[in-house]
Amino acid sequence: MTVTGAVEGGQLGMTLMHEHVFINLLREYRGTGLIQDFHLMRHELDRYREAGGVTLVDVTPAELTWGASPDPGGVYRAGRPAAASAEHTRAPDNVAALLELSAATGVRIVLGTGHYRDPYLAYEEFDRKSIDAIRDLLVRDLLEGFAGTRIRAGLIGEVGADQWFVSPREERNLRASARACRRTNAAISTHAARWPVGRRQLDLLLEEGVAPDRVIIGHCDTVNIPEYHLDLARSGCYVQFDTIRPGSEFALNTRVAHIVSLIRAGFIDNILLSHDVCGRDHLQAYGGGGFGYIPRHFSRRLSQAGVDQGELDHILIENPRRALSGEAG
């Protein structure tokens, strides 16, 4: 399910599974954490398309869409935080701008629905909702469309945990996501940065009856523990290396080593790649790698490490197709 409607899985092509187009992260990144420029993001998506990209998954959760929802003319429109509304999980103007951007660039955009993590979940509206009330909003977004629009979400996420443990709010959020997944078969994409907390996230989702192949554990490349990646892959979920950006040789080589290790261990079906573009400094226009870094540069590093073109296509095309559609290989 994309912003322009349902498409066959075979039409998704090269797909980035964890990105942000319009986002407000000023709470944590005062200098770079706000992206709201329609024309700038059109330029970035055009570069992605030129690099061979076809589809991008925007996993910006409710709490990060407020203040990052320009209209198609590029003008900022203030409004109530989506997170503070009993009705909205994504601001309607955020959805409308992403639809316009997809139409302008030809890049297919899949939208996530859901709530983020602590400390962003610490507000009254969220605390007053039951697990099933949270679930019902996600199901509505997935089956009917975001409030005020007819545009449907295509997966759940990003949802997750901020520390090495899952807080009570985060647990409620994950359980609500699990119940929405069981109603709709939509994949769940998680935030599990810096700590091996993805194992606990997966266990909670499995407790709720979610099939492991509907779970994408995010930010695995920020956890430099190969045994953690292998454990997740053996459990049947997707292991997502999604902060792949220009940087130190050590960081890039470590990511290559983790990916190649999983491939050679027989888990190529479980690997997903992305950049997690979420700040202006990540954009090509500001000196970052943008959305085209994986197809233009990182793929070459994988090839030099012995990953052939068929394996690259499997990771960048086939695995996202299965993750988003729920179809078998």
Describe what this molecule looks like in 3D:
It contains ten helices and ten strands. By secondary structure, it is α/β, with parallel strands linked by helices. The strands form two sheets. It has an eight-stranded parallel sheet, with helices on both faces. Strand 8 (215-217), helix 7 (226-235) and strand 9 (238-241) form a beta-alpha-beta unit. Helix 5 packs across helix 6. 49% of the residues are buried.
Main sheet?
8 strands, parallel
Amount of beta strand: 5-15%
Mean pLDDT: 92
CATH class: Alpha Beta
Strand order, largest beta sheet = 1-4-5-6-7-8-9-10
Shape: globular
In CATH, the homologous superfamily goes by the name Metal-dependent hydrolases
H/E series: EEEHEHEHHEHEHEHEHEHH
How are the SSEs placed, and which strands pair?
Elements: E1 15-19, E2 23-24, E3 34-35, H1 38-50, E4 55-58, H2 92-105, E5 108-113, H3 124-127, H4 131-143, E6 155-161, H5 168-184, E7 188-192, H6 198-207, E8 215-217, H7 226-235, E9 238-241, H8 249-264, E10 271-273, H9 293-304, H10 309-325
Parallel strand pairs: 1-4, 4-5, 5-6, 6-7, 7-8, 8-9, 9-10
Antiparallel strand pairs: 2-3
Helix pairs in contact: 1-2, 4-5, 5-6
